[in-house]
Structure formats: C-alpha cells, structure tokens
Design goal:
By secondary structure, the chain is an alpha/beta fold. It has 22 helices and nine strands. It has a five-stranded parallel beta sheet with strand order 4-5-6-3-7, with helices on both faces.
Length: 442
C-alpha cells in the first residue's frame, strides 16, 4: 500500500496558477538587474538566478506539467516572494481545465497569461497618458494586439484613480455615419453611457452653433466637470471614419482642437488638461486632412511591432509546447511574428491538434490549421477587386514592388503586406504561399 500511494502523490504534483504566474511576472520586471530594454529573462538567466534547470523552468512557466512544491518555492524565493496556497493548483484540476482551453481571439483578458509585453510600447503609452492633455496614437495592422495593449494600460491607470472609457467606432451602425450631427450625438451618448452618467445630449445641443461646437461644449460644460479624476478617452477602430470623408475632416479636426485647448493657457485649459485621448487605428491616414487640424501629426505615436524571435519563444513556453526552439523558429519563419498567427499555431501545438511538421507543411491547405482564417481573408478581399489584383502582384513578384498608396495602406491594415521605403512585400510566408496558389490562375 505504501509503495502504491507514494508515486501517485508525486505524479499529481502542482502547477503554477494564474495568480502565481502574474506575481512572478511582476517580480521579474521589478528586479533591479532586469534588462533596461525591458526584454524578458532568458531561461539560462533564470536558471542562474534560481538554481533550477532550464528544462524545469520551461515546465513551470508552461503551466501544463506538474512539478514539486519545493521547485516553485525556490523560484519564488529567488525573486523575494513567498509561495502561497493561491499561487498553485493541483495538476489534475489544471489538466482538466487545459483540455477545455478555447482558442484566443480578439482582445485578451487583462489577466491573460498569454499576453506578451512588447517593450517599450506599454511603458511609453502609460507614461504618455500621465501627462495632462495627452494625445496617444497606437497604430498597427489588425490582430496585432492594439486593443489588448490599450486595455491593459487603461487598467493600470484605473488603479491610479483615472477614469477611463474605451469606445470602438466599429460598433456604430452605418446609419450613424449619415451626417456629422448624428455621428457626434452618437459619440457623445456612448461616452456618457460608458461613464455611467445621465444622457444630456439633447439638452446641450443647439443647431445654431454647429455640430463640432456642440460636441465640444458637451464635453466642456458637462462631461469633464462631472469627472473629478483625469479622463482617458480611448477610441478604437478609428479607421472606420476614414471611409466617410464628410465626417472625418470635422471629427478629427475637433479632436485636434481638444488637444490644443489644453495648451491655450486660458481659463478652460485646466479643464481640458484632464482629458487624455487615445486613437487606435490599423491603417495610414488616407483621408485629406489639414496638417494643422489633424490629430495624426500631434502627440505621441506608438507603432506596435510584430513579435520577435524571443517573444515567440516566450509565448511557446507559456503554451507548454514541446521542442521549444524548433517550434519558435518554424513559427517565426511561417508567420513573420504576427501575434494572431503565432497564437493560432501555438494553440494547435499545445492541444496536440497537429504536429509541428504537419502544421508547417499544411499551413496553407484548405483543411489546415489556418484554413478558416485564410478563406475569410480571401472572401473579404473578393469584395474589393482592386485590392485582390494588387495583392496578386505582390505575392507573385520575386521582389518587393511599389503599389498605389491607398491600396498598399489597406492591404497593410489587414496584415497582408509590409511596407518598407514604399516597397511592398508579403508580410509572411503563410500569406505568400496561400495567395500565390489561389490567385495564380485567376
């Protein structure tokens, strides 16, 4: 009996919980000898500090394979932490939960262990928004993690007693863009609702003064006086407005005017200094805007980069995939570091839906891991024959080439191409392989 019970106890072991993982991440970032550039520790660096082998550390950080309690205690102690009962979970429970893991899409939860920091983007955004009257612009192609980054920064600011609101302009019905009045009233009403204030739009709107003035007055006389703390107004998917030039010019001109109001030095400036604006967009600004009225050449620009090889490897560790180095290198080659494509591949490997060889060799197949995503991209592009024709030129070309700027910007916004010095090329091997096959005979 003794012989049978002892191995069962060792086999169960414990696995780092989400809370424990978050505590370790925070402690690693606070460590005085942490990389000034913000790069995460390598497994070898962690091994030198903790006395644990790189393989053991990979198991701990992958959060799928059980380890003994002393291993976690040593890891925590190396960063000045004490292992608590909420920092780990029974491996049987964790395994059952892991089998039900759902593919991550869209904005990651604030506490997701699969969020990868991309220094210095988070720190720049956070520090920028601490400045009165700040304007921050976060730009990157779709599915790059812009909204997840903004949400995490806003959560940090809420901990510092800021008021925050995130509004996706993609939620506006097409009818909202019929005219400027309707759009700005919708905008005011949504922000009011997000801040849990009574809707006073009709009370503050007088057609005699014009729509931009009315919207500005609504914030100046109602929203901002009602909020005691600094207010961060984050606008997601602002690209939507680019398709409505009759609205874009006035709307963006108004936002630029708000930014300037904080700098006038008059009686109202202190009020406007409470407001910090975040604009999140995927494409270059292709609507004609007066340079002095555009918010896109003011404030702080943050261009979110692709994952690098170290970040792909870090995420592979968190997913607990086998053959870390090979998996990281192969996925980097295939996806070019696209956060979404990397997540899809690692999820597949962690769930053992396919081997690494199968994932790579059949990546562009209709029934492959990326099949649904690729078909959706093709279906979307077929609505825009000019974009499809432009992409065909790019993927069938052996060298980067130049496209009409608006076509290049729109393809870049979908993550399909990269632009360097006006030269356009496929953003990754996956897209080149798939679209060169399906478009070659079209």
């Amino acid at each position: 009996m003794t012989h049978q019970s002892q191995p069962a106890k060792r086999k169960r072991g414990i696995i780092l919980s989400l809370r424990g993982w978050q505590r370790l991440q925070a402690a690693e970032q606070r460590a005085p000898e942490h990389h000034p550039s913000g790069k995460p520790y390598t497994l070898q660096e962690l091994s030198d500090r903790t006395g644990l082998s790189p393989n053991t550390l990979a198991r701990v950080r992958g959060r799928k394979v059980a380890v003994d309690q002393q291993t976690l205690e040593n890891y925590f102690r190396a960063f000045g932490l004490t292992l608590g009962t909420e920092d780990f979970t029974d491996s049987d429970l964790a395994t059952a939960s892991g089998r039900q893991q759902v593919m991550l899409t869209g904005q990651l939860p604030i506490d997701s262990p699969f969020y990868i920091h991309r220094p210095p983007s988070e720190a720049l955004c956070h520090e920028g928004l601490l400045q009165p009257g700040a304007l921050i612009r976060i730009k990157a192609p779709r599915q790059m993690g812009k909204t997840s980054l903004a949400a995490r920064v806003l959560a940090q600011l809420r901990d510092q007693r800021f008021s925050t609101t995130m509004t996706s302009l993609h939620l506006a019905d097409t009818a909202v863009f019929t005219d400027l009045k309707r759009f700005l009233q919708w905008f005011c009403a949504v922000v009011t609702q997000n801040l849990e204030l009574p809707n006073q739009v009709d009370h503050h709107w007088d057609d005699l003064f014009g729509n931009s003035y009315n919207c500005t007055n609504y914030f100046e006389s109602y929203i901002l006086p009602k909020i005691d703390q600094p207010l961060v107004l984050a606008l997601d998917e602002v690209d939507v407005v680019f398709d409505y030039p009759h609205i874009a010019s006035d709307f963006f001109g108004m936002l630029r005017a708000w930014y300037e109001k904080a700098r006038y030095g008059d009686a109202k400036s202190e009020l406007w200094r409470k407001l910090r604006i975040v604009l999140i967009h995927s494409t270059e600004v292709y609507v004609p805007l007066n340079l002095n009225q555009s918010p896109f050449n003011a404030g702080l620009a943050i261009e979110l980069p692709l994952f690098n090889a170290e970040q792909v490897l870090d995420l592979a560790q968190r997913y607990g995939v086998e053959n870390l180095d090979q998996a990281g290198a192969e996925l980097m080659m295939l996806t070019g570091g696209s956060p979404y494509l990397v997540q899809v591949g690692l999820h597949c490997l962690s769930m053992q839906s396919a081997s690494l060889e199968q994932l790579v060799n059949h990546s562009s197949a209709i029934d492959g891991v990326y099949g649904s995503h690729l078909r959706n991209l093709l279906s979307d592009l077929q609505k825009y024959p000019d974009l499809l024709a432009a992409l065909k030129r790019v993927v069938l070309s052996s060298a980067p080439l130049e496209l009409e700027p608006m076509q290049a910007f729109k393809l870049q916004s979908k993550g399909l191409v990269r632009i360097q010095e006006q030269q356009v090329s496929p953003s990754c091997a996956l897209y080149r392989n798939y679209f060169s096959q399906v478009l070659a005979t079209s």
